[in-house]
Amino acid sequence: MSIPPPNFVEREFKEPLLCGPGPCNLGPSVREALTKPVFSPLCEQFFSALDDIRAGIKYVFQTKSNLVLAISGSGHSGMETVITNLVGPKETLLIATRGIWDERAYDIAKRLGIKTIVYRVPYNTTFTLEELERQVELYRPTAMFITHGDSSTGTVQNLEGLGDICHKYGTLLLVDTVVSLGGVPFFMDAWGVDAVYTSTQKALSGPAGISPVAFSARAEQKIKNRKHETSFYFDINLLAQQWNCYGNTRSYHHTMSPPLVWALRECLRQLSIETLEKSWERHAKTSRYFYERLQRLPIEFLVPNPEHRLTTVATLVLPNGYNYNDVVKYLREKHNIIIFPGLGPTAGKSLRIGIMGVNSTVAVADALADALADALQTLVKSSL
Ligand SMILES: *Cc1c(COP(=O)(O)O)cnc(C)c1O
Questions:
Q1: Is residue 2 in some structural domain?
Q2: 104 exposed, middle or buried (CB, 10 Å; 0-12, 13-18, 19+)?
Q3: Running along the chain, 384 residues long, what does each successive block of 10 average in pLDDT?
Q4: How many domains does the chain contain in total?
Q5: So where does substrate get bound (predicted)?
Q6: Which of 150, 203, 322, 360 gives 286 a disulfide partner, CB atoms 3.0 to 4.6 angstroms apart?
Q7: Other Cβ atoms within 10 Å of 375 Cβ, number
């Protein structure tokens, strides 16, 4: 044989405290769920797990819609699914842009031959509903894409009333809740959201690779009447049959990953036991506590308006003279804590610190604040 087998050396890892904008550490019961047995994808045990997941998704998105299921893939697969199923080539997508995820939506839409309109605000702010209405009224696009919580900038967008505005002009509202769901209030039906997706590895404390999506009745109509073809893997009509969204249509589309199905079911079960209200309250309390601890350090917020700050991901500005990558490296090497530097518009301008899911506790906030204080002291000393 010309290619010999490679030698796989043992690799030992000490699990870090994951406090970046994602992934988050796994919840203990989620870790256990990952080791549950593999069932046939066409047996009762598996079907009942899918039914549980659909009920859980309706709860966490707060929707009565039947077209809810999970896509096999990370958060991006949810993004691609909502865009490709609802907006055809030559139709128009308005992208409200303030961070990297909106840029991704732009990239996906471009590749699908969709006409895109980008409406931008400075990355450390959010949109007013008035300015969004002006854009929707002007272009009357097929759909508008907007990010609820933006993990690249640390902002949270007010969405209450935006659905009504969109519907007035025949526009569908598509929302990314990957880093906000479970950490920040979200109400799909009450806010008139037509398509939404999230993912497991942020505030749900699960493994990446499976992404809940939901479509409103209005979006369902659009999917039924659409003229365009979508990708096979993300075709919501076929997936709705696999997930039995309308009853008696269990059918094979692709093999889902049983460990991920069990893990998602457990994430949703845990959030249902805690309840959304309690989870939102816990996240708000932890982040308030973390901000209080930061007041003793020479650290500023990248987002000036406290109302625009995202509870799950903080973007922090260090005093002049500090290198963001050095601080990230120091926390990893000295404290085994993972935080991230800026990304996209915030690259070289901030740290991104995520306190979410199982990590949304006073103990984690303390560990982070202590580690940051140590980094600021030590790194300054070494540069003197
Ligand atoms: C992390 C993140 C994504 C991308 O999720 P992947 O699982 O990495 O594909 C999308 N949107 C937001 C807001 C995110 O924070």
A1: no
A2: buried
A3: 94 94 97 93 91 98 98 98 97 97 98 98 97 98 98 97 98 98 98 98 98 98 95 97 91 94 98 98 98 95 97 96 95 98 90 98 98 93 57
A4: 2
A5: 352
A6: 360
A7: 24
